[in-house]
Amino acid sequence: MKGRRAKTKPVVKKKFVRVKETLYSYKNGKIKISIRPFEEHLVFDISKAWFWSRAKGEMGELILNEKFPTIT
């Protein structure tokens, strides 16, 4: 029936977040992600990563997983 929900509640299968471009900055091989403005942030140093010499162009979308960030 249209407009009726199932009796089971929705369940989270994968925990991930797509970070908007306004919430992260990239400078000198480091990605800084703002959690709370001027209070909390995460910094990932990707200048020592294995793919650094092969990466060219602009950084695309940033996805945070439970264990690691993914750059597309």
Would you give an account of this structure?
- The structure is a single chain.
- With 72 residues, this protein is an all-beta fold.
- It has one domain (17-71).
- 0% of the residues lie in helices and 36% in strands.
- The chain has no helices and six strands.
- It has strands at residues 17-19, 24-27, 30-36, 40-45, 62-64, 69-71.
- Strands 1-5-6 form a three-stranded antiparallel beta sheet, with no helix packed on it. The protein has a three-stranded antiparallel beta sheet with strand order 2-3-4, with no helix packed on it.
- The radius of gyration is 17 Å and the shape is elongated.
- The protein starts with 16 loop residues before the first strand and ends with a strand.
Q: Topology, pairings included?
A:
Elements: E1 17-19, E2 24-27, E3 30-36, E4 40-45, E5 62-64, E6 69-71
Antiparallel strand pairs: 1-5, 2-3, 3-4, 5-6
Short description:
This protein is an all-beta fold and 72 residues long.
What is the 3D form?
Answer: elongated
Biggest sheet details: 3 strands, antiparallel
Tally of DSSP helical segments: 0
Poorly predicted sequence stretches spanning 5 or more consecutive residues: none
User: In total, how many domains does the architecture comprise?
Assistant: 1
Strand order of the largest sheet: 1-5-6
Work out the number of β strands.
6
Residues in helix, %: under 10%
Average of pLDDT: 87
* Relative strand content: 35-45%
Order of helices and strands: EEEEEE
